[in-house]
């Protein structure tokens, strides 16, 4: 919420990838910008068609993402009627996607 206070009190940021240190930063803005740039470039290199940042619990707020993500991200609008939306999801989910095998630890979709 208070970006300026957060920005001023955050320092010595380390960017990791798969447990390996990639780079160190002295300010959070540079760290976000560089981290998103690296992730975006890697996703594009791997052939991703639509590259979106992670949002929600445990991730930066949307206004921070918009500030530092390399391109303007497009997010779906939250449904006005969440109950109707969830009913549609359930109704349109094929039954075979809702079953799990006894030995299967993977989500079937």
Key phrases:
10% strand; alpha+beta; 109 residues; two-stranded antiparallel sheet
Give the structure's gist in a few sentences.
The chain contains four helices and two strands, in the order αββααα. Helix content is 39%, strand content 10%. The chain has helices spanning 3-9, 28-45, 62-68, 82-92; strands spanning 13-17, 20-25.
Detail the topology: elements first, then pairings:
Layout: H1 3-9, E1 13-17, E2 20-25, H2 28-45, H3 62-68, H4 82-92
Antiparallel strand pairs: 1-2
Structure description:
- With 109 residues, the protein is α+β, with helices and mostly antiparallel strands.
- It has a domain at 3-74.
- Helix content is 39%, strand content 10%.
- It has helices at residues 3-9, 28-45, 62-68, 82-92; strands at 13-17, 20-25.
- Strands 1-2 form a two-stranded antiparallel ribbon.
N-C termini distance:
36 Å
The gross shape turns out to be extended
Mean pLDDT: 85
Beta fraction of the residues? 5-15%
Helicity, as a percent range: 25-40%
Which spans have pLDDT < 50 for at least 5 consecutive residues? none
Q: Sheet with the most strands?
A: 2 strands, antiparallel
């Amino acid at each position: 919420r208070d970006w300026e206070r957060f920005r001023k009190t955050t320092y010595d940021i380390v960017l990791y990838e798969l447990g390996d240190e990639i780079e160190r930063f002295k300010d959070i803005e540079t760290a976000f910008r560089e981290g998103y740039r690296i992730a975006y470039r890697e996703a594009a290199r791997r052939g991703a068609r639509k590259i979106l940042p992670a949002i929600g619990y445990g991730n930066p707020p949307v206004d921070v993402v918009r500030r530092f993500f390399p391109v303007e991200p497009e997010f779906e609008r939250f449904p006005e009627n969440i109950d109707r939306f969830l009913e549609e999801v359930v109704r349109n989910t094929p039954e075979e996607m809702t079953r799990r095998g006894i030995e299967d630890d993977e989500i079937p979709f």
